[in-house]
Amino acid sequence: KAMVVTGVAHDINVARIGLFDVPDKPGIAWQIFRSLAGENINVDMIIQSAMRDDINDISFTVGRTDLRKTLEIVEKIKDEVNIKSYSHDEDVAKVSIVGAGMVTNPGVASLMFEALAQESINLEMISTSEIKISCIVKSTQAEKAVRALHKKFNLDQEQPCDCCS
Amino acid sequence: KAMVVTGVAHDINVARIGLFDVPDKPGIAWQIFRSLAGENINVDMIIQSAMRDDINDISFTVGRTDLRKTLEIVEKIKDEVNIKSYSHDEDVAKVSIVGAGMVTNPGVASLMFEALAQESINLEMISTSEIKISCIVKSTQAEKAVRALHKKFNLDQEQPCDCCS
Ligand SMILES: C[C@@H](O)[C@H](N)C(=O)O
Ligand SMILES: C[C@@H](O)[C@H](N)C(=O)O
Question: Cα(B75)–Cα(B69) distance, rounded to whole angstroms?
Answer without folding.
Answer: 10
